[in-house]
From TrEMBL:
EC number assigned by the record: 6.2.1.-
Organism of origin: Rhodococcus erythropolis (strain PR4 / NBRC 100887)
Keyword Ligase on entry: yes
One GO MF term: CoA-ligase activity
Domain (AMP-binding enzyme C-terminal): residue spans on this chain: 419-494
Keywords: Ligase
Highest taxon of the lineage: Bacteria
Lineage: Bacteria, Bacillati, Actinomycetota, Actinomycetes, Mycobacteriales
AMP-dependent synthetase/ligase domain ranges (all copies): 17-369
Membrane-crossing residue ranges in chain numbering: none
Name under which the protein is recorded: Putative fatty-acid--CoA ligase
Length: 506
């Protein structure tokens, strides 16, 4: 399926139904369809052929997201560009992707002006929401002709890995990859009636691709232009939201929001969390405060969203109580994915044994764009290598214990930072944390925890270390606890351990 096929499927269930909403403005399915056909024809008139790369640089916005379907209808490739990136990073992505056209919001025009002269292959520059000297306005660029190209099931998205060091890689996702992700979503989570999906997180990331299964059911996507949790709760109540997604960092903040308890949340069927490990302690709190609707997803750019899943009901045991032992897992391998655990020699390991998480599935990318060496490395031994260390338990739940690069070797023992972080997050005064290894003359590496306290909380490092030791033992207990008011984070809210390490090592 093309990306635009999800829009057309939704339209077939009611063309006048609401499709994209932001504030008081709603676009129906037929309005987005017509816009996408005009957009596709205008791309062709601009000399953009099927298979060529088209980038969108925008915050969350209905018109910007409608452009995605125009790109797809023209048979071109959507390149989502994160507006929170630095100018140099976006220049590198546009260059790497061989982008021929860039559509951007006016608020990012200064960034575009910084990089456009270094990108001679960009033949089309269009400002989505106004006039800008160096670009056409969308209004003047968009013609009245309509087009719908019957493109082959080929690469439909190019996604940057967002690497923290060196040049990022471009993940090639095909229509079949997105179709597999959509099928898994519809298989694995509750959907009753026409869904209403609230998108607060960036549409350039997980929040965007989760729109496709919603549209396949003729649902409405309510878009938030910025991450305001008070407005988020107001939207849940106003629009009777059934599905939404937030990363753990924002869930932690939501649990402390004064409006949560008084918000009508009865419409919620599925509250997805993912993109980073979640604290089991805070997850149990979320089940209590938000409701029995929490739903996990685990994936990566190379295998979008749905390597493993945990539906709301799987958070509970047969007796109806919260299954606390499962809350630190990433759920079970999803129906269309085979998960294995592999050692560094390519041998598959048994239940309970720790190694790299590898998968086989039509969910897996077509490869890295113009990078055959990296593609071959990621697919060694006939499996896709995730770079995560984990194990499968006897009930087939997948536990992610760390990124391979984040494992700490201290005194000859392997310490997985995620396990230490989960123990730290159970301490009442800690809101978030990052665990790293620093060089140590005695231990080789010592375990160091940098913690962010709850507002007004006092953190005593000795007490924290004693607390962690009682839970996971002395070897894994941090030798040092450092308190910071805030932690460095990526554009999607992940704690950046490399920046913590850089700050502490100078």
């Amino acid at each position: 399926m093309r990306l635009t096929d999800y829009l057309d499927k939704g339209a077939s269930l009611g063309s006048t139904a609401p499709c994209l909403t932001m504030g008081e403005r709603t676009l129906s399915y037929s309005e987005v369809q017509q816009f996408s056909r005009r957009f596709a024809a205008s791309l062709a008139a601009s000399g953009i052929a099927a298979g060529e790369k088209v980038a969108i640089l925008s915050g969350n916005d209905p018109i910007s997201f409608s452009c995605v379907f125009g790109i797809s209808r023209a048979g071109a490739v959507w390149c989502p560009i994160n507006p929170r990136n630095e100018a140099a990073e976006n220049r590198d992505l546009l260059d790497l992707f061989d982008c021929r056209a860039l559509f951007f919001q006016k608020s990012y025009a200064p960034l575009v002006d910084q990089i456009k002269d270094a990108l001679p292959q960009l033949v089309t520059l269009v400002c989505i929401d106004g006039e800008w000297d160096s670009a056409q306005s969308l209004e003047s660029w968009l013609g009245e002709e309509e087009l719908d190209v019957a493109a082959p099931d080929d690469v439909t998205m190019l996604v940057g890995t967002g690497g923290t060091t060196g040049r990022p890689k471009g993940v090639m996702l095909t229509g079949h990859n997105i179709e597999t992700m959509t099928a898994i979503t519809l298989m694995s989570y509750p959907f009753e009636g026409r869904p209403v999906y609230l998108a607060l997180a960036p549409l350039t990331h997980a929040a965007g691709v989760l729109c496709f299964p919603i549209m396949a059911l003729g649902g409405e996507v309510v878009i938030m232009p910025k991450p305001d949790l008070g407005y988020f709760l107001a939207n849940v109540q106003k629009h009777k939201v059934t599905h939404t997604f937030l990363p753990p960092t924002l869930i932690y903040m939501l649990l402390e929001h004064e409006d949560l308890a008084v918000t009508d949340r009865s419409s919620l069927q599925c509250f997805w969390y993912g993109a980073a490990p979640i604290s089991p302690t805070r997850l149990e709190e979320a089940i209590d405060k938000i409701g029995p609707v929490m739903a996990q997803l685990f994936g990566q750019s190379e295998a979008p969203m749905m390597i493993s899943t945990m539906s709301p009901k799987e958070h509970f045991g047969p007796d109806g109580t919260v299954a606390t032992s499962r809350l630190s897992s990433a759920g079970r391998p999803s129906p269309l994915v085979t998960v294995g655990i592999m050692d560094d020699k390519g041998a598959l390991l048994g239940r309970g044994e720790r190694g790299e998480v590898v998968i086989r599935s039509s969910l897996v990318m077509a490869g890295y764009y113009k990078n055959p060496d990296a593609t071959a490395e990621a697919s060694a031994h006939g499996w896709h290598h995730t770079g995560d260390i984990g194990y499968l338990d006897e009930d087939n739940f997948l536990f992610i214990v760390d990124r391979a690069k984040d494992m700490i070797i201290t005194g000859g023992f392997n310490v997985y930072s995620v396990e230490v972080e989960q123990a730290l997050m159970a301490y009442p005064g800690i809101q978030d944390c990052g665990v790293i290894g620093l060089p140590d003359d005695k231990w080789g590496e010592r375990v160091v925890a940098v913690v962010q306290p709850h507002l007004g909380a006092d953190i005593d490092g000795a007490e924290v270390m004693a607390f962690v030791k009682s839970r996971i033992g002395s070897v894994k207990t941090p030798k040092q606890v450092i308190v910071w008011d805030d932690l460095p984070r990526s554009k999607v809210g992940k704690v950046l351990k490399n920046e913590i390490k850089s700050e502490l090592t100078g």
